[in-house]
Model the fold of this input.
Amino acid sequence: MFVKLAVKYRRLSVDAIVDDYAIQTRDGFGPVDTVTAREGFRTYALDVRYDLPVHDHLSVTPRFDVIRQTPWQITDHS
Done:
């Protein structure tokens, strides 16, 4: 699942992403398993910006970014 939300209001812009990529696998570091395991790669990202005009052709843009990732989440049935 991949979701992206982008909102702009006047000089404020907010971008958010949620990515919950997952695969089903039976291989790994050892022999091939008989039971399928889920491997997940989850990401949350947020970007916030606000344009502050200083002059006619000059602006300052404070920015806040945060990313939270949890890769290689494996459901082990053993």
Notes: The chain has a mean pLDDT of 91. The chain has no helices and six strands. The two ends are 27 Å apart (CA to CA). Strands lie at 2-9, 12-25, 37-50, 52-55, 58-60, 63-74.
